[in-house]
Amino acid sequence: MFAVREVSLLLAKVAEETNRYDDMVEFVRRIVQLRLQLQPEERSVFTAAFRGALEERRCALVTLREFEEQDEHPFELKEAITEYKEKIASEAETLCKTALRHIKEDLLPVAPQGEHLGNLGKMRGDFYRYLAEFRMMKGSNSATEDGEKSLQAYKDATKECSHLLASHPLRLSIALNSSVLLKDILGRDDEARQHAAVCFDAARRDLASLDKAEFGLANLFLRALRENLAVWTECDEDKSKEPLPSPLLPNVEAYMSPAAVPVDAEVRIVTQGGK
């Protein structure tokens, strides 16, 4: 059992280095199917695998949508592009559902209460949010339902880690992702701004209580929250501007691996809807 676990983790890391995210997904699935409590590094690799595979498909869908909107293409080609786009979107939905099934069936039953359940709850919220995003790209009516499931998962995760400081990286990552969900998926702009602002202010008050590693990572999430608030406020003040996608950290799971993000790491903010 330990050999399978260790070898699969190593292969998953190798697959990530070679950008073979579909292979990485298969390797991490071998680990979670053992139904053992995941170590922080394994949890980070699990999320990175599915996120990487989903990001490949999201970028493909954005490119295909641009082709689809070009007038010079003949009808037959546009029809073929639409069909291809639906195929990729279905693959993305399957990946999200697979991740959610593993969390529910393999990880939650063996997770102790508290921070471990909080992490898994956040992961559930993330994958429901990704699922909602892909279904929005398809124009599916079930996107809102998935968004509500994501929001509930984030709320459950927040309760599980309520004993942690408001500035703890886990609580801040939940605040960041749930505020983006409220804004970009559920369209609750005022609620998103209020939620982000409340979490930001609460975290700043007890930031000094964190240790050195947590302090640096908390600052990483605080900068992302502040950037979101700045973008949302600017768009709200100037209604003539087209709404911008919410800036989002490229890998909000990285903090779970202490060596993954140095305390003095430079944070690169990327747009959720960009290429």
Automatic annotation (TrEMBL):
Gene3D superfamilies: 14-3-3 domain. Residues 5-242 form the 14-3-3 domain. The record marks 58, 129 as: Interaction with phosphoserine on interacting protein. Belongs to the 14-3-3 family. This is 14-3-3 domain-containing protein. CDD domains: 14-3-3.
